[in-house]
């Protein structure tokens, strides 16, 4: 399998998911270009075989120049960090629309966009966080109405989400994390996305990327305890505490407010979607050639690396 009529550009190719996409594309012998704000650190992340285009996607000139000799675009941009959260609209919305505009002018037809697992506007309204996910909803709508040969990937959170709350034998979760959520390894996201970018038969498809099963946080704490032989105690802290703290911190640390909204979403994850996770995963197994990494495998890997 090879995408053989030009280079594949990965916007966000140094990120948590993006770097795995790049690695898998390179392993398949593809010519890959990555756009990054920092040439040196990008080189360390993606290696020698990848062309690095240094630039900021908030500049149209960067986008125009980066698209030279490209035939497929993969977008894995994110502003979900303390430093970038204030520029979320410019990075995740405006830059993506500029990429689409300039790609059209440059006659690039293949576009792969990484989004959230499934973003329901009604749920966001009901949770009173309508702005959370609004950009992705708008971009998905613009892409699906476009003439591109597009594929949208609805990515589940990485397994990392569970381990981020584990410290000193405790898994302390705001809100408890009692609703089951889908999750996936970054390796699998990379492999599937690379196959999607190369294939030409997935035009107009929105595909959900998830591991085999949805888990609650207490279930994962139990699984880690069983596999490691060390007790991981699941502790719930009220979400209202994060709500108040994030509100107070908003002028100085707006990212904490965004985290609060993510936690609210996580704790209210629709259980009909969770119930469908095995079915969605089975679909991936039928569509793509890969051996999935399960959460159990991830736990064992982390134990071996002394990370738990
Ligand atoms: N991580 C998850 O668990 C998860 C779960 C579900 C969905 N997703 C989706 O997956 C996508 C990627 O997320 P991620 O977590 O992998 O992102 P990430 O690790 O935060 O990486 C962000 C990327 O965006 C690039 N970037 C940010 N601002 C830029 C700018 N102004 N100019 C050029 N590049 C810029 C960064 O490049 P440089 O720093 O090199 O410039 C970096 O490669 C997002 O759409 C996210 O919503 C992620």
Task: Please specify the SSE layout and strand pairing.
Elements: E1 7-11, H1 18-27, E2 32-36, H2 39-46, E3 51-54, H3 60-66, E4 70-75, H4 88-105, E5 110-116, H5 121-126, H6 134-144, E6 149-155, H7 160-163, E7 166-167, E8 170-174, H8 186-198, E9 205-209, H9 217-228, E10 233-237, H10 239-249, H11 254-267, H12 271-275, H13 277-287, H14 295-304
Parallel strand pairs: 1-2, 1-4, 2-3, 4-5, 5-6, 6-9, 8-10
Antiparallel strand pairs: 7-8
Helix pairs in contact: 1-8, 4-6, 9-14, 10-11
The structure holds NADP nicotinamide-adenine-dinucleotide phosphate.
The site of NADP nicotinamide-adenine-dinucleotide phosphate (NAP) has 27 residues, from strand 2 and strand 5.
